[in-house]
Amino acid sequence: MYRSVVCLALLLAVFFWNGCRRPKPVVTKKPPVSRPKATAVKPDPAKPASTTAVAAKPVPTRPPVVATTPVDTVETEELTALVPLPPKREFRAVWIATVDNIDWPSKKGLLPADQQQEIVALFDQQQQMGLNAVVVQIRAAADAFYAKSSEPWSEWLMGQQGLAPEPFYDPLDFMIEQAHSRNMEFHAWFNLDRATFSKTASVAPSNIVFRKPGWFLEYGGRKLFNLGLPEVRSYIASVVANVVRNYDVDGIHFDDYFYPYAIAGQVLRDDSTYQANYNGMKKADWRRDNVNRLVLELRDSIRANKPYVKFGISPFGIWKNQSSDPEGSATNGGQAYYELYADTRKWAREGWVDYIAPQVYFSTQFGRAPYRTLVEWWTRNCGNRHLYIGHGAYRVGRGSERDPGWYSASEFPEQLRYNRQQRAVAGSIYFSAKSLKTNPLFIRDSLRQGFYRYPALVPPMPWIDSIPPLPPRDLKAADSSDGIELFWQQPEPATDGNGAHYYVIYRFEGKKPRIHLDDPRHILAVCQGELLTRYVDKTADPSKKYVYAVTAFDRLHNESQQIVVKVR
Known about the structure:
There is one protein chain. With 568 residues, this protein is α/β, with parallel strands linked by helices. The protein has two domains: 360 residues, TIM Barrel, CATH 3.20.20.80; 95 residues, Sandwich (Immunoglobulin-like). Helices cover 27% and strands 18% of the residues. The chain has 15 helices and 20 strands. β11, α12 and β12 form a beta-alpha-beta unit.
C-alpha cells in the first residue's frame, strides 16, 4: 500500500509540473542586471557575478508550479464532518546549515555544478515533503556564501576562506531562484557572534579580525564580536542590510547565539568595554541592553531597505525558569535571559521581530523541560507576532536516559499534533535538512504522507501589510487536448500599489458546489509570478462538472477575493 501511494503521488506530481503556463516562453535565467555599487560590497573585478556556473553538468530547473491531487467536493464535505480541516495557512520550513558542512555543501571544495546539484536535490525533496520555506545559513563566521559581500568567501564552500567558486557563480542568487521556483520562501540565516569558528579554521587576510582587531573577544578558542561596542553592532546591521538590498530574500533570520554559552573555567573579558559604556547599569543588564540595541538596529535596517522582508529569531527555548521569575516557564534548564543575555520574550511581545521560533528540542518526556510545557508557555508570551516552533529533528530516534521520549516513533508526530491544537502556533522549522533527508523513524514520510499531505500557504503578517491584492480579471476556461485550460488577466494594483505575486487555483466538483476556499484540499495549483496567467488542469474528467476559483496573493501572502468560472 505504501509503495502504491508513493508511486501515485510521484506520477501525479510529474503530471502537474507543466500545468501553469506563461503567455510567453518561461525565462529560467535572468540576464545580468547592473546595480549601483553598495558601500559594503567588494566585487571581484576578475570574475563578474553570474546566477549560474559555467560547468559541465547541467542543473535541472523546475517549472514554477506546486500542484496537489484535487479531492472531489462530496468526499471533502463528508471528511469535514469527521475530522478537522488541514490548515490552509502554516509555515513549514527547514534549517539548512552550512557551518562545518553540516547540510550543504556535503564537503569542502566541490565543483560548483556539484554544489548546485546538491541544492536542487535538497529543495526537490523539501518541496515533495510539503515545505513552503527554507532557512539557509549564508554567514557562519564573518564570512559569506554570496558574492556581493565585503566579507570573504566561506571556507566551507571551496575549502579555504576567501576562495571564490570556480567556475564562478553566486550561490545565494542560485538558491533564491531555486527556492522561489518551487514556491518556497527563502530566509537568509546569519550567525552574528563569531568571527572565527575554531583555532584551526581558515581565516583570510581580508577577514574583519585583522582589519578591526579591537572589536573582538577571545572565548572558547574563537574570536567573538564584542557586542558592547556600538560600532560592532552597526557593522553587523550593515552586513545584513547589504544582503537585503542586493538579494531577493523573503526573510532575515538569526539563531540563539548572542553572548556565548558558558564554558567551564573561561571568562568573557569585556570589562574595559563595560567600564566605558555601562551607563550606570549592572553588567548583566548592560549586556542584555547591548543585545536589545542590536535587535532594534537590525530591525530598523531591514525596514529601511525593504519593508516587506521579514525579521525572525530562533532563540534557545527557555526564556526564564519559574523558579527564577514567576512569569517564567515551569521548567528547570538553561535560561536565555540570564546565560545568553537575550530577553527573547521582550522581542516578541514588543513587536521587534516578525516571528519568534524558540528551539524546543526536548521530548514530551523530558522532565526538566517537557515539550508541551514549553510550547504552551510560548503561546502565552509571543505577543501578536508569529510563533513557529523549532523542532530537534536530529534527536529523533536518539533517546537517552534523561530524555527517553526520542526513542519512540510517536514522539515527533505527537509534537505536531499538539502544535496544531494551539491557536497561537503558526508553523514549524526543523533542524536540520540532513535529519529530514536520512528520515529517522520515518519522520519525512510522516510529513509527506500525513501532516503535509495537502499544501499550506505562508501565514500573512498584517502588521507589515494588511491590504490584499485585487482579484484576477476575466477568468475563462476552454477545453484543450491536454485538459481544461484556464486563463485570466492580471489584477490592477491595489491601494498600496501591490499587484499579484502568485495565484492559487481551486477546483470544486458539481453543478452548484459550495465554494470553500479555507479547505486546502481544493487547491489544485500555485502559479508563481505575476505573469503566470494560464493553467491547464490535466486531471479533469470530461464527464464531470467543475467550478474553478482563482485568487491573487501579494508578497506578504494576503489573498484577494476569488474570481470563478464554471465548466460544463
